Amino acid sequence: MPNLSQLRKLAAQRITAPFLSALSRSRIKPNTLTWLGLAVSFIAAYTIATRHLVVAGILVLLSGLFDILDGAVARATGQSTRFGAMLDSTFDRLADAALLFGVALLYLRTGEWLTVALAFLALVGSFLTSYTRARAEGLGIACPVGLFTRAERVIILALGLLLDQLFIALIVLTGLAFFTVCQRLVYVWQKTKESRNYYKD
Fold it and tell me: Where do the structural domains in the chain lie, given as residue ranges?
């Protein structure tokens, strides 16, 4: 029975397969795809702020496609680098910030402060989900757990835009992001506890 991480990898392979062969033969560099993904995210943020929600939803999905294609092309062509991974992670955070800032701007105009606050909390949650994993790995602890990764965040936000249900999408984004943070904290605590017990024995 495949776990959640394996299912994500399988889904990513299915999504990228139709594009991977052509991109691998082209001269497009993986980092170029990373830059394109960020640019599309900024355009999507603008369309959110100006309430072109269906267009924004499509653009969010397109930016998510670029996000998985850059890594897939890098692996397929042997162009994976540590800097490329760093650039990808950094631009993912910028994209998240831009998109949720666009949501906040949209609802600031109408004075819907609860939705603005939810957008802020969703942003904090998205940053923390990435930070907890990176911090764990910085401590030498692999952290493969997590119910809600960036792929799921992109899908939920896109659905919220396409269905004009941003408030519900923000509740889901915020709740599941903080749930994932707790998952990772508990996982790392258990791993560090096991290490202490090992040295005691």
Answer: 4-193
Give the pLDDT of residue 1. Answer: 43
pTM greater than 0.85 (yes/no): yes
Residue whose entry in the numeric block shows the structure tokens 């990898």: 9
- Looking at domain 4-193, its CATH architecture is Up-down Bundle (1.20)
State the catalytic residue, choosing from 70, 92, 96, 164: 92
139-189 pLDDT per residue, tens: 899 888 888 888 889 999 999 999 999 999 999 999 999 999 999 999 999
All residues at 6 or more sequence positions from 125 whose CB lies less than 8 Å from its CB, including other chains = 173, 174, 177, 178, 180, 181
Residues 19, 73 contacting (CB under 8 angstroms): no
Residues near 130 by beta carbon (within 8 Å), at least 6 away in sequence:
89, 92, 93, 150
> 159-162 long-range CB contacts below 8 Å, 24 or more apart?
159/57, 160/57, 161/48, 161/53, 161/54, 161/56, 161/57, 161/60, 162/53, 162/54, 162/57, 162/58
Q: pLDDT tens for residues 43-85?
A: 999 999 999 999 999 999 999 999 888 888 888 888 888 898 8
pLDDT of residue 5: 66
> Residue 120 class from Cβ within 10 Å (0-12 exposed, 13-18 middle, 19+ buried)?
middle
Active site residue 92: yes
